[in-house]
Amino acid sequence: MRAFAVSILLSLLVTADVAAQGTASNESFGHAQLSIERIFSAPNLTTTAPANLQFAPGGQRIAYLRASASNPEINDLWIYDVRQQQHRVLVAATQLVEDPTAMTATERARRERMRIRNSGIVDYQWSPDGSQLLIPIAGQLHLVSLPENPDAQPEVQTLVSATTKASDARFSPQGQFVSFVEDGALFFVELASGELHQVTPDGSATLSYASAEFVAQEEMKRMTGYWWSPDEATIAVTRVDNSAVAMHARTDVYADRTELVQQRYPFTGTANATVDLGLYQRTSDSIHWLNLPERHREGYLARVKWLPDSSQLSYQWQTRNQQQLTLYLQPRNTDDEATAVLSEISNSWINLHDDLVFLEDSRHFIWASERSGYKHLYLYRTDGSLIRQLTSGDWPVDSISAVDDTTGFVYFTGRKTTPLERHLYRASMTTSSPNQPTQLSQRSGMHSITFAGDQRSYIDSFSSSTQPPQVSLHGPTGERIVWLHQNLIDEKHPLASYLANWSYPEFGELRAADDQRLYYQLTKPPRMVDNQSYPVIVMVYGGPRAQRVTNSWGDYFSQYLAQHGFVVFQLDNRGSGNRGKLLSR
Q1: Residues in Cβ contact with 424 at an 8 Å cutoff, skipping those fewer than 6 apart
Q2: Model confidence over 255-307: pLDDT tens digits?
Q3: What stretch of H or E contains 215?
Q4: Whole-angstrom Cα distance, residue 290 to residue 296?
Q5: 416-441: per-residue pLDDT in tens?
């Protein structure tokens, strides 16, 4: 299949070069024409925007990742001081380890599931008090302490031995510990003493602890297998038994070699891993297993989350046919049984989400559901009784961005105006008009939002079909405070020499034979002649929930084809995402 796709791509490129012979020369335009080589060369055509932006507690510092000047494939960690409006490199990947690209097979597989392509510093976490950052890299854990003098160098401390191969590392909620997984077992370091504690037994070839199994990572986007309680007294931890999953061979194809890898892979209809959930009590150094496979019929542990007061643990269990999802509350006192709070049922399947938010009083929560045909937000009591619907209409919510218990607002991204754009909205938890949330983002395009912990500001990562990615800092009602990455296209911008030949796409919709609305994107050659025929390439991807037609930046291959005389027609089919389970008519 891969070879077939490559041959089609090569044929298209050859055809494009032939078609280009019938177009005007680059010299007649007087400007550069896009090439395949330039698309994949440095510097990035759109410049490299800050990635993985995270507010420090208090909201006065923002950390982010940016490609190293010496190697664009390796990330370094930067800091932006909101008060001083200054950017600086906090620590480079090469300062921490000799080879920033090194990683274990476990970490490589985990990054593949998370679609992480770069190396160097790819993950980090602020300490709860904002004075330190935890950086896992090449299996090592580094604690970076920020100096009071912003011009001074940070202090770097290595938490584990050089032979440790740690993954899924994080601070505990109050910052007293750093936990990590190694070889299928869970550990934590007590920061005050430096003492290392092993939480679970050792892992084996078929048994692992505190890790997400393959299906959970790849299909359910659950990337972890352990969860600290907010008071740090308890850790919920998984036990995964893969002994019933059959071994299969897969082929990994690299640029210079091919490798045959043996892997336990649960093909459709065959046995899955058996997953249980336990509660580790730190004071007694013991684990009580909940025996989920015996409590519930065959299915999946989809999500786990503690309530703010640490009295109860929530977990979501999905049946294997994916038609029922139940939210349970398990008291930390394991002598008490779990209570089923609510259940979603579908005659097709239930889409999982990460939009369960427990309010600070631990007596209410916000839940997302597609029961109406569109994903919307609902306010519940923890006894399972519905208080009110927070959003409604023939449009879907994307995800919750923040919840402000003090003001009673929930912030979320959604597609109220068009499924081709994502905007930030605000709704009151006492709303009587769930179909009329307040839109905070204004520019047409795709907005990705990161809120500060106090909900007093947020970061907006934005792009559109006419604007390469920008990053800005905003106040809670949407006003822009400062640009973090304005990305203006001036004469020095990598795109500048190509803009005269640039073709911006057009968007529209078609009505199918059954009257369903299908959205398309049309990219034309920059200069078209009347009464002349042009070859058309139709691009359709039929994967479930995938969406290719959006008002966003970055379709360079269509641009390349258009500049070589092709009309490129992209169409999202009936199964595309972000239009609800009941398609608009």
Answers
A1: 401, 411, 412, 413, 439, 440, 441, 447, 449, 458, 460, 478
A2: 889 999 898 999 989 999 999 999 999 999 999 999 999 999 889 999 999 99
A3: helix 214-218
A4: 11
A5: 999 999 999 999 999 999 999 999 99
